[in-house]
Structures are given as C-alpha cells and as structure tokens.
C-alpha cells in the first residue's frame, strides 16, 4: 500500500493544463503588431459553445429516449383473442384486429443504440472544440528568449486564448502549407500532428488588409525571407492556378 502511494506521488503530472500564459513561456507581445489578425471569426467559431451545449442536450435526450422508450410491437397469442363469428343470414363483419401491445426492445439493442448516440454526440463536441482551437485568430513573430536571442518565435493565439495567452514555438519548426480552400493557408508543425488554419479573406496581414494573393505573398516572405519566400509564393501560385 505504501509503495503504491509512493509511486503515485512520484508521478510527474503536467504543470499546465489548458491554455498557457505567454509570461510563463518567457514571451510578451505587448506593443508588438500582429503579423496576422483574422478579424471576424467564422460563425461556427463564434457560436461554438452554444453549439456544443445544444449538441449535449440533444445527445442526452436521444440517449434517454432510446434506452427508456424505444419499443417494438408484440402481438398477443391467438388463443388470447376471441374471433367474432357473424350469423349466416347477416353480412360478414370485419375480421378481428390483431391484438397486442408495445414492449421495450431487448436490452442489448437499446444499449448499443444509446452508446452510439452518446459516442456521436461526444465526438461532434470534440470536433467543434478541437477545430476552434486550431483556428489562428492572431499571430506574432517575436525574438527568442535570452538563451537563444537569434531565433524567431511564432506566437499563435486561437479563439481559446486571451491576449496574455498563446502557443509559442520556434518559427523554424513550422512551415506554410497549401489548403484546399483558395482563401486559406495552413501552418504545419514539424514535430506535432495537425495544423493551424489561417483564413486570408478579410484578414489583416502586417497591419493592413490585403488581397488574398498579397496576403499570401507577405506571409511567405515573412516566414522564409525575401528571396526564398518569393520563390515559394510563385510556386504556390502555379499550384493554385493548376488546381
């Protein structure tokens, strides 16, 4: 027992759960102009929490209805019903209706369907919250910490972050990616799964609103420098025109 408690105490739990403050990561963005500001978020990103609550309410109702009220028709045995016999000198009466009642479906059917409803609802809520956390709302590029002052750091703030929070990573460990949407770019992470979505339509890049192509060009040059960035921008333009 004591050895088990000692092992539990020795476990290293994550120090930070949820969005991290920039101060704890040694970064500040005070008086720093954003490299990118999306402006107005997409409608579903603005109403994510409402959609999640509605999804959970619908899921809970579906689970309750399925488990407690999902029934099927069960006919009573024929010997439990009396058939109406008409006299020979009268017109035949309508045949007797089948007598029965509704009963709950077997437990395994109700249980499986309830589990499917629950998994679907939780999955949809996770997709909404996960997708919202991968939208870039604001983006900064700042100098590295004192130990590596020459390294540029990328600060990404999603709708989940406040002004004093954000995800910080070295710029060299990220890359700009093409998106199936012409008005969008993506930021890939070399050592992590997934990507961030950068919407260019209506966004401010380097403090001003630009066309989609100018915004794309500006981001490439900011990321990779003037020469390499221009080359990658031209290559991306060829890809977009071909598609």
Largest sheet: 6 strands, antiparallel
β-strand percent reads 15-25%
| Global shape | elongated
Helix and strand pattern: HEHHEEHEEEEEEEEHH
Distance linking N and C termini: 64 Å
Mean pLDDT: 83
**Largest sheet, spatial ordering of strands:** 6-5-4-1-10-11
Number of contiguous helices: 6
Backbone CA Rg: 31 Å
Q: What's this entry about, in short?
A:
The protein is of the alpha+beta class. Helix content is 38%, strand content 19%. It contains six helices and eleven strands.
What does this protein structure show overall?
This protein is α+β, with helices and mostly antiparallel strands and 243 residues long. It has helices at residues 2-10, 43-46, 48-69, 107-133, 212-224, 226-242, and strands at residues 36-37, 71-75, 100-104, 138-143, 152-157, 167-170, 174-177, 184-189, 195-199, 204-205, 208-209. The strands form 3 sheets. It has a 6-stranded antiparallel sheet.
